[in-house]
Specification:
This protein is mostly beta strands and 149 residues long. It has one helix and nine strands; from the N terminus they run αβββββββββ. Strands 1, 2, 3, 4, 5, 6, 7, 8 and 9 form a nine-stranded mixed beta sheet that branches. The protein is elongated. 23% of the residues are buried.
């Protein structure tokens, strides 16, 4: 009787390990960062730039829409270069700026010469931080009504 009980316990343990242990070796997609929106995201020093995208009617000029979070203790001036345009955006310490939101207009980028539905390179940099160039989606205003220039 003890042998049968021991065999049952070993079998139950084997089934439990086999049924639950597969997550140890299986790829877990939830551990990978991805942008769950139309835009892209980057971090430049203490500035987190989220959901970056350009809204344009024809790809010549476009409005930059994004959220910038300053996680640092100092005010920063973010320089944004795209096409023939360089813009500056003031971001106070520990504050968030939403371009294209209810309180802040998007930034006009002239001469981006991009295809709507494609990508355009935009360079982001502030102070002495090393800047980052990112390929940003260029979308029309079907989903972003009122945000095209």
């Amino acid at each position: 009787m003890k042998a049968r009980l021991a065999a049952s316990a070993v079998l139950a343990l084997g089934l439990a390990i086999g049924a639950t242990g597969c997550s140890m070796v299986t790829y877990q997609a939830t551990t990978e960062h991805y942008d769950a929106s139309d835009g892209v995201s980057i971090t430049v020093g203490e500035l987190d730039l989220r959901n970056i995208l350009v809204v344009s009617e024809d790809g010549t000029d476009g409005n930059l829409v994004m959220t910038v979070v300053n996680t640092g203790e100092d005010d920063q001036t973010l320089k944004i270069t795209a096409g023939s345009t360089t813009q500056e955006l003031e971001v106070d310490a520990n504050e968030t700026v939403v371009l294209g939101g209810e309180e802040t207009e998007p930034l006009l980028l002239e001469g981006i010469d991009a295809e709507v539905g494609g990508l355009t390179p935009i360079f982001f940099q502030y102070a002495s931080e090393e800047g980052i160039e990112k390929e940003v989606p260029v979308l029309d205003d079907r989903l972003y009504e009122g945000l095209a220039p």
